[in-house]
Design brief:
Length: 461
């Protein structure tokens, strides 16, 4: 059985030992070493090298999740893997579950068509810039949305520019002439052709997206599919997803009937009628719709991000397709795979109880403020005692920082973050920004790089 040595600080040692003792049955034996510092988060690779003499009798060393320094160099020094654990001790059981059953989220089957809905009103340069942003967020195809009764004089130039930049391009229009122009300019897809406009597919090489002649007209869609199949031409089929409460449920059933009638047909589902026209957080809507797409084995999804509340729709779609693909492939529930779509709440928001925080606070002998959050509220403690409140304004008078502007500003920011986390049910970690999942772009922190001490240890004067 593997033996693991866990390195930690004095304050975290009792809790780490309790967490490890509760992992039953543990797939490893373990030893906890406190290496002579109070706060585990201040551990660095250089400090470990100085204070932990080789050889270490183990098969692996796990250090705190925010330990800075080169783990590969430490691994070479000790002759065994040295690995960062989770940032929170309470996440160790989940950490080992994930390590035992790694799930690859790089794979996906659904292609994302990201529509530039106002393309005729943008310059070619602006269209390419928008396409680049969508591609960074995960889009596979850039859809040029044409507008009714709005000339798109630079349609051909836009297609040429996007193709020259390496993009796959679709043209989305109700005007047959615009579809022809887009196809002749080199567009890869045309949205959308009906049974009556299939002749366009004979004029250009672009792959058509087939839709019903009118809303809910499944017979015309089926006829168009059969006609394109008889010609040996590639296509995508879209039953049209209707908004709530104007036939949403019935439209889902139509997609299911489409799949039943044509088991091998590549399906495209447009999700904008839900994400744009429902005032709710789009991360959850995308999770549900991409779950449906995974069950339907859809080939593509068309998304938009026009409304301000849908400003992260493409990025959410990218995460949703990966998560739902992994869940479908592994025949497992879409839980525990990624927190990217948990933008407002956290799955385990409060890892520590009030009693556990109080036990840690009783060990503190310095004036530095620590902030933690439990289900009971905000806990602030140092050597002078533990304060509990449910908001920054409630706790502020108890801190005695009226004469220390810099520290007062820092504590104000931290308490505000802690209060937001407590009210929403999010994970709070002092000195770290709140995690908003894929809703907020968060740069990847390089823990191998040196970093100056943070503001956690700012002392009260």
């Amino acid at each position: 059985m593997e033996h693991i040595v866990f390195l930690t600080g004095r304050l975290a040692q009792p809790q780490l030992e309790r967490v490890l003792a509760n992992i039953q049955p543990a797939p490893f034996t373990w030893e906890v070493r406190e290496i002579g510092l109070q706060v585990a988060a201040l551990m660095t690779a250089d400090l470990i090298r100085r204070r932990v003499e080789p050889p270490v009798q183990a098969q692996r060393i796990i250090v705190p999740g925010r330990c800075r320094g080169d783990m590969d160099a430490l691994s070479a020094h000790y002759g065994m893997p040295v690995q960062r654990g989770p940032e929170e001790l309470k996440d160790l059981p989940r950490f080992f579950d994930r390590a035992a059953q790694p799930i690859d989220l790089s794979e996906r089957e659904v292609a994302i068509f990201a529509e530039i809905v106002d393309a005729p009103q943008l310059s070619v340069e602006a269209i390419v810039e928008r396409a680049q942003a969508y591609q960074r967020d995960g889009a596979d195809v850039i859809d040029l949305g044409c507008l009714p009764e709005t000339p798109f004089h630079h349609l051909e130039d836009s297609v040429h520019a996007l193709k020259a930049a390496g993009f796959s391009v679709s043209v989305d229009s109700m005007d047959t002439q615009e579809l022809l122009r887009g196809g002749r300019a080199g567009a890869d897809y045309l949205l959308s052709l009906t049974q009556e406009t299939l002749w366009i597919a004979d004029e250009v090489a672009a792959t058509p997206v087939l839709v019903p002649q009118r809303g809910g007209d499944e017979a015309s869609l089926f006829a168009a599919i059969e006609a394109m199949s008889a010609r040996g031409r590639a296509f995508l089929a879209d039953s049209i997803l209707d908004p709530i409460p104007f036939g949403f449920t019935a439209s889902i059933v139509r997609y299911q009937r489409l799949r039943g009638r044509f088991p091998e047909a590549p399906i495209l589902m447009g999700v904008g009628n839900l994400t744009e026209l429902t005032e709710a957080d789009t991360s959850g809507i995308n999770a549900l719709l991409f779950g449906i797409a995974a069950e339907l084995q859809a080939a593509a999804v068309l998304t938009t991000q026009v409304s301000p509340h849908a400003r992260r729709a493409v990025r959410e779609a990218d995460w949703a397709r990966r998560i739902m693909h992994a869940a479908a492939r592994q025949r497992m529930l879409p839980k525990g795979l990624s927190d990217a779509l948990l933008t407002v709440h956290a799955r385990h928001p409060f890892p520590d109880t009030s009693d556990e925080i109080a036990a840690t606070a009783a060990l503190v002998r310095d004036p530095n403020f620590r902030v933690q959050v439990s289900a009971s509220g905000l806990h602030v403690y140092n050597r002078d005692g533990l304060r509990l409140g449910q908001g920054a304004f409630e706790l502020w008078p108890q801190l005695g920082l009226e004469g220390d502007a810099a520290h007062a500003f820092y504590m104000g920011v931290e308490l505000a973050n802690a209060e937001i986390a407590w009210r929403l049910g999010k994970r709070y970690v002092q000195d770290q920004p709140l995690d908003w999942g894929c809703a907020v772009e968060r740069p990847i922190e390089n823990l191998s790089a040196w970093c100056a001490p943070g503001t956690t240890m700012t002392k009260q004067r």
